[in-house]
Amino acid sequence: MKLGFSPEEELFRAECADWLQGQMAGEFKDIKGITTLTAKAERRKEWEQQLAAHKWSCIGWPSQWGGRDATLAQQVIFAEEYARAGVPGRVNHIGIELAGPTILTFGTEQQKARFLPGIAAGQTIFCQGFSEPGAGSDLASVRTKGRLEDGEWVVNGQKIWTSLAHISDWIFVVTRTEEGSKGPKGLSFLMMDVKQPGIEIRGIKQINGDAEFNETFFTDARCPADSLIGAVGDGWKIAMGLLAFERGVSTLGQQMAFRNELDAIIAAAKANGQASNPLIRQRIAKAEIGLRLMRYGALRMLSNTDHSKIDGAALTYKIQWATWRRSLGELAMDVLGQAGEVAEGSEYEWGMLPNLFLFSRSDTIYGGTNQIQRNLIAERGLGMPREPRGDL
Amino acid sequence: MDFRFSDDQLNLAEGVRDYLSGTHGPEVLRRLDEHGNRDPAIWQGLVQMGLTGLCVPEAQGGLGMGLPEAALIAAECGRACLAEPLVDTAFVGVPWLVAQGQLGGLEDVVAGSRRIAVAHAINPWEADGDGAALTSVDPLRNLSVRVERSRDTSAPGVSTTLDANGEGDDLLLNLGALMSAAQLVGLADAMLDQAVEYAKIRTQFGQPVGAFQALKHQLANCSVAIEFAKPVVWRAASALEHGLESAPVHVSHAKVAATDAAMLTAETAIQVHGAMGYTYEVDLHFWMKRSWALCGAWGDRAFHLKRVDDAVLGGALPIGPQHTFA
Ligand SMILES: Cc1cc2nc3c(=O)[nH]c(=O)nc-3n(C[C@H](O)[C@H](O)[C@H](O)COP(=O)(O)OP(=O)(O)OC[C@H]3O[C@@H](n4cnc5c(N)ncnc54)[C@H](O)[C@@H]3O)c2cc1C
Questions:
Q1: What does the domain layout of chain B look like in residue ranges?
Q2: A2-11, A105-114, A135-144 — which is least confidently predicted?
Q3: Helix H or strand E encompassing A196
Q4: In terms of pLDDT, which residue wins out, B132 or B74?
Q5: What percentage of chain B's residues is helix, strand, coil (to nearest 5)?
Q6: Contact at 8 Å (CB) between B150 and B184?
């Protein structure tokens, strides 16, 4: 056990801080501090490319594919400095954190050469085509069909809740490639070009007025045969592997953003006097404890590099942060009081904290709902009997 | 002792519920949200049911009813997510004017031609007032900046604004908080209904998601919170009606209990809907945003908890076993 950073690591921190702060004070000043997922999407694509041009876009990847082979400590430091500089979230986080690692782990050499450079360069934005109208928590019930025809996969069906599909170039899709199969068997994992006539995207408005997610329709959409990751029928295994990456290093950057949110709440409480209200003080203290708990939990989880066995502790991570953040949204509103509920002018412009309140309603839903997380912890982590499921 | 509503009172509330569910459905909310204009026929319907005159004395042409009936109807307004200024006009403004002996112009309120906007120091805004426009998180509320003005409440006109003195008037505050609490229990009821209905029709893993105990138990928790908030609201209405010294404590208790029930139910109802609950297309968010807005209106949770703890620890509230009804 060694907690803390070495002098070389502190040098690395200075390098990150220097560059990131320079960018946010200079060429990319206009995107500093953005907290919604879709605002200034075009500029944020340029930001992805700027990161890539300076080899900061995927530091944890192998250097062969545009990364820096960064150690865990370096990734922690970069995430900290990224948030501290007020840089907005990555519009290509799905490419960098999900698609890339999936291809690195399960893809062929040709597939790596085909996809990784574009992702690393910030040229290929990815989105995630898992959920369907009938397949949410029950992901294994996907019905979108894929069939091989003249050396191409032809896909028909519908995905939903596809975040950022409208600004994406590629989508990875879980499809049913074995006619008549049920459940996790008979699924395959395909990479598809979004910008083709067979794919249509319709935005879905969210409760905060943003339209970050979409319905994605496939009508004879096509991709070459070698766009299949893994073997035919491996779709479930790969989808589950990908979900494990979702719990990986990306959680660090997310936590640093949480730090900024809690700091904004503390600043607001000091400014409006709520900091002297004992109820609010206790909740702020609890939020601080919760955040530190997650930080150490994440570092322990990431230090464990043996991903071959299911780690019971890692399963507890999603529900912990999601529930913590949902309460953080409520704390933000209680601190702001009525100031959070009204705005001058004719259109309500969601500020950072009211938006946090609304957005955090979804944290306990996407990436596996709290109920599904508890089932996983109990059934896979603790080995408890599975709950009876119906057969409608 | 009889802690029940009479059949007449319940029938009245049911009539209002039926009327609103027939004329003020989600399509009305969506139209209002998109185009911003209210449908005058809905207001006329409320007037014809006598609701604007519910608390106006019979001598002035009203129904002469009290705060418990008003709270019961306010809960129905919450259930319907009503986008008309009925609660402020008829259940906050009128009772306050009557208590001050200011009976002039109430006939116009009964007739529906005069509405009352209520301003109070505890709120930075007023609903349906005449100050500069504000936008609320609740897209259906018509808010404006609270304007300091004289207490002349008898000026003729379509709309009258009540303004308590600068420090804020206690009765007005208690009426506002009580009627917010009443609306909140109605809003919570409606959100619970929506979640229960969705849990019955949405299937995953081969069964309705409502069959999973994880969801059933959460919805049951909401029901517990709501059912224990309601009697507290009715109790507060009765205490304020009878001018009990302890009425402010009861009102605060009601506001806290109703706030907690509504926020828990909003959170749970979204969760039960999964990603659907996070969309604008599903109606739920109108109720959730109204709840959020009313939780902060007329004193937030912290304000009302402090009123309770001041009264309990400061000795103003008699707390021995013989004081059940104090
Ligand atoms: C903001 C946001 C972004 C998203 N982005 C993407 C994306 O980019 N790509 C993508 O593929 N998907 C995405 N999703 C979809 C997300 O993965 C699903 O919403 C999630 O898996 C839940 O599915 P559902 O919404 O269909 O809810 P349902 O599965 O219908 O669940 C409804 C309710 O039933 C409960 N429930 C279901 N099964 C059980 C059970 N067995 N036991 C107990 N309770 C149960 C749930 O917990 C929930 O409360 C996104 C969702 C959101 C909200």
A1: 170-324
A2: A2-11
A3: none
A4: B74
A5: 60, 10, 30
A6: no
Q: What is the DSSP letter of A97?
A: I
B264 touches chain A (CB under 8 A): no
Burial B46-77, CB ≥16 within 10 A → b, else e: bbebbbbbbbbeeebbbbebbbbbbbbbbbbb
pLDDT digits (tens, 9 = 90+) for A50-109: 999 999 999 999 999 999 999 988 998 999 899 999 999 999 999 999 999 999 999 999
Query: Bridge-partner residues for A200, per DSSP?
Result: A217
- In this prediction, residues B245-252 reach a mean pLDDT of 95
Across chain A, mean pLDDT equals 92
**Max CA distance (Å), chain A:** 71
User: Quick one: pLDDT at residue A247?
Assistant: 66
Structure-token pair, residue B138: 């609740």
Distance CA A317, CA A301 (A): 9
Range 82-121 of B in CB contact (< 8 A) with A? none
Q: In terms of CA atoms, which chain A residue is nearest residue B33?
A: A347
ipTM: 0.94
pLDDT at A307: 52
Distance CA A250, CA A242 (A): 12
Mean pLDDT calculated for residue range B108-132: 87
Surface-to-core class of residue B100, CB atoms within 10 Å of its CB (0-12 exposed, 13-18 middle, 19+ buried): middle
Asked if A374 reaches chain B (Cβ–Cβ under 8 Å), the answer is: yes
Sign of CA dihedral A237, A243, A248, A250: positive
CB contact at 8 A, A193 and A223 = yes
Domains in chain A with CATH codes = 7-91 (1.10.540.10), 126-233 (2.40.110.10), 247-381 (1.20.140.10)
- Does position B27 have pLDDT exceeding 90, yes or no? yes
d(CA B116, CA B113): 10
A with B: how many residue pairs have Cβ under 8 Å apart? 123
Secondary structure (3-state) at B99: helix
Ligand 1 contact, A214 CB (< 6 A): no
Taking CB atoms and an 8 Å limit, are A340 and B296 in contact across chains? yes
- Taking Cα atoms as reference points, which of A105, A115, A39, A120 lies closest to residue A352? A39
What CATH architecture applies to the domain B170-324?
A: Up-down Bundle (1.20)
Percent of chain B with pLDDT over 70: 94
Confidence band for B322, pLDDT divided at 50, 70 and 90: confident
pLDDT of residue B168: 66
Q: Which of B200, B201, B204, B270 for mutating ligand 1's site (highest number of atoms within 8 Å of CB)?
A: B204
Distance from CA of B10 to the nearest CA of A (A): 34
pTM, full prediction: 0.95
Residues of A annotated catalytic, as ranges: 246
> For residue A1, what pLDDT is reported?
77
* B140-B146-B152-B153 Cα dihedral, nearest 10 degrees: 20
Does A121 or A306 have the greater pLDDT score? Answer: A121
d(CA A364, CA B266): 14
Pocket test for ligand 1, best of A90, A125, A131 (most atoms within 8 A of CB): A131
Query: Strand B159-163 to strand B115-119: parallel, antiparallel, or no bridges (unpaired)?
Result: parallel
B75-90 per-position pLDDT tens digit: 999 999 999 999 999 9
A168 Cβ inside 6 Å of ligand 1: no
